[in-house]
Amino acid sequence: MEACRKIMNTFVRKKDADFMEVRNDKQILYLTFPLLEKTGLVRHLFSTRKGGVSKGIYESMNLSYSRGDVKEAVDENFRRIAGIFDSSPERMVCSRQTHTTNIRLVGEEDCGKGIMKETDYEDVDGLITNLPEIILCTFYADCVPLYFVDTQKKAIGLAHSGWRGTVDRMGEQVLKAMKEAFGTRPQDVVAAIGPSICQDCYEVGEEVAEKFMECFSGEAIGGDFRGNAFNKRGILQKGVKEGKYQLNLQEANRTILVDAGIPKGQIAVSDICTCCNSSLLFSHRASQGKRGNLGAFMELRKS
After folding, report:
1. Is the peptide bond between 60 and the residue preceding it cis, with omega within 30 degrees of 0?
2. Residue from 77, 140, 131 nearest 108 by CA
3. What is the mean pLDDT of the chain?
4. I need a labelling partner for 26 at 20 to 30 A (CA). Which of 61, 77, 160, 264 fits?
5. How does strand 135-140 pair with strand 92-94?
6. What is the pLDDT of residue 2?
7. What pLDDT score was predicted for residue 227?
8. Distance of CA 177 to CAs 102, 148, 159, 266, Å?
9. CB neighbours of 292 closer than 8 A, spacing ≥ 6?
10. Which class for 263: exposed (0-12), middle (13-18), buried (19 or more C-beta within 10 A)?
11. Are 224 and 218 in contact (CB under 8 A)?
12. What global pTM score does this model have?
């Protein structure tokens, strides 16, 4: 497996200029996908730990109210992120993630939910909208962020996909929801798979590995799971310990998006690992659960 990118290195190289690049705006360090920006339709980012006001294990750009951080600090962190969009937290809408594939169609009435006011929904891991200047927000600390831009219908989607969401094909479910709501066609979608835990860092047991074998073909998995014939380019590879496997969530989600009909050239895949870069990105596994949350944010531009 090719090594994941270290966040302190240069992100954009000539051969993969559509992956991610680092930006520093108003002393906030964040990541963006040039491929999404080239659509001209959206503003977006993926946060890092840098640029906020939280202290201790939440230092400094923590975007979670539920992990024990001071509310006023989280409020300020959201305000700073909103400032990058020349907006305010009143225009943000947050997910309520519980590793489902439930997707909410976001309207003006949802603005501010999860930050300025309580949500009136639960178990929502994906958000979609075709309304401009509403900032969709989903949250991470090793799981996979999925970004979707429908270039024809002018609609967007943002989703959280851990291993459970991936097995249940969250990316495909977002596309189905966008088709139902907006008439989205997969061939018109530009997508991106954001920073998450890499295959070398993500060890799983046989029960999880079996679920991925049921979800994906043997070729995509990387060989014959039960016959132990693995190669290193698939979704699973043998771990060092007996009964353990290394899971590639980024490749699993890329496979789902391609299977759902998005052309390969319209999918950007980050090679940045949250666990390998835990000093700059929150990682549940690296911190043993003592951490804050990162955020994925996206807004449809006003025409």
Report:
1. yes
2. 131
3. 92
4. 160
5. parallel
6. 46
7. 47
8. 9, 12, 12, 19
9. 49, 54, 57, 58, 59, 61, 62, 63, 64, 67, 69, 141, 282
10. middle
11. yes
12. 0.94
